[in-house]
Amino acid sequence: MNNDVDTIALQASRRGRWLPVSEETLAAFRTTLAERAKKRAPGVRLSPPVQDLASLVDSDPVLRMYFTLAIEQALQAGYQLGYTNVDELMVLIDELMTYAPPFDKTELVGCPLNALLDWPMCMPAGFALFRSPELNAKFKAVLRYWCDFLSGPDSRNFLTTDPPTGWFCPEAISYTRMSEFVYDDTKRYWGFASWNDFFTRKFKSGARPVDAPTDNTVVVSACEATPYNIQTNAQLTDRFWMKAQPYSLRDIFTTAHQTLAEKFAGGDVYQAFLSAYNYHRWAAPVSGTVATTYLVDGTYYSDLEAEGLDPGGPNDSQGYISQVATRAVIVIDCDDQRVGSVACVFVGMAEISSCVLGVREGQHVNKGDEIGYFQYGGSTHCLIFEPGVIQSFVPKPPFDFHTPPIKLNRQIATAGR
């Protein structure tokens, strides 16, 4: 690769640290996976959802065309994929259905499916391919199947104290600040029932105190997350597929909830993304009553053409995917009428396994209360405010991969009309 591409890869893949900076490391991961797949016993069947995915692509001439072209375009561009056609890719996807990531602070392959699809998804044919609703429905089933594995006891092979890959080895517990979390090191696997149980581990009481708990004009961070963007005067409809990636509220909330979207037209949006190593539960940014909750099906590996090369997942397409990706929406009517309603939109990036709602409509929550969580996968989120509510934001753009994360329950804005 040339220096320009290396620079793009460096910047993009560092966001959230879900994939290594080095393309050579990713190529080695794919090659090793391919070598392991070659050792499969003859006649071994694909897992049911992977077979369904393969059958869809094989039976749909348009999807087969786009998939074949995307792979060929990536190979012609010089990328080492570990596969040369769709059939070989499906076998590698199947190998990942029993994969749980080992600890590695510099070369973590936290999103292995994304690692496989990294270059086809941002080739010219890939942009159209990964927007297909039929294809995304099959990927959803694949990810649910993988999530079931990650939620089971067989996913704990790296929940050990064995260096260098065990998540409880000295380097790992220092890097992940495990002392801040709830665990029991007297038990096997430190008391975690599965990989997802570890991934969604909880903070110890008092580890993340709530800023100004009784003052709702102080809005706090809903996630342990790094600021990505702030946009004022968000429009009801906008050209979210352009490079600027403006937020199109009707598309974020969906047309079925247009009345809700209209409520926030002209308001402000704060977006931040989560790291592979950090906390993945959501907290209420204000105190109030939960007015609305719903889940939205969407894309998993769709990138934005206007961003060009976006290795390491849809990192540079985070504004765009807020309108098209799988997501959960929670709207809180704040106890302080000067703050109004706050919409929390939790977005699955790449192989997010699921967005789990933890509250119901009509329930009252206090600022800092848990309202849901991401199961395994990359993730970003938006907080959306009504017009004229935000007086100032604490984090100040521009943001880049050097921007530090804001801790859960720390102030991100001052609000009040």
UniProtKB/TrEMBL annotation:
Single GO BP term: phosphatidylethanolamine biosynthetic process
Location of the L-tryptophan decarboxylase PsiD-like domain: 48-174
GO MF annotation list: phosphatidylserine decarboxylase activity
Pfam families: PS_Dcarbxylase, PSDC
Statement: the UniProt record of this protein carries the keyword Lyase: yes
Keywords carried by this UniProt record: Decarboxylase, Lyase, Pyruvate, Zymogen
Protein name: Phosphatidylserine decarboxylase family protein
Organism of origin: Frankia nepalensis
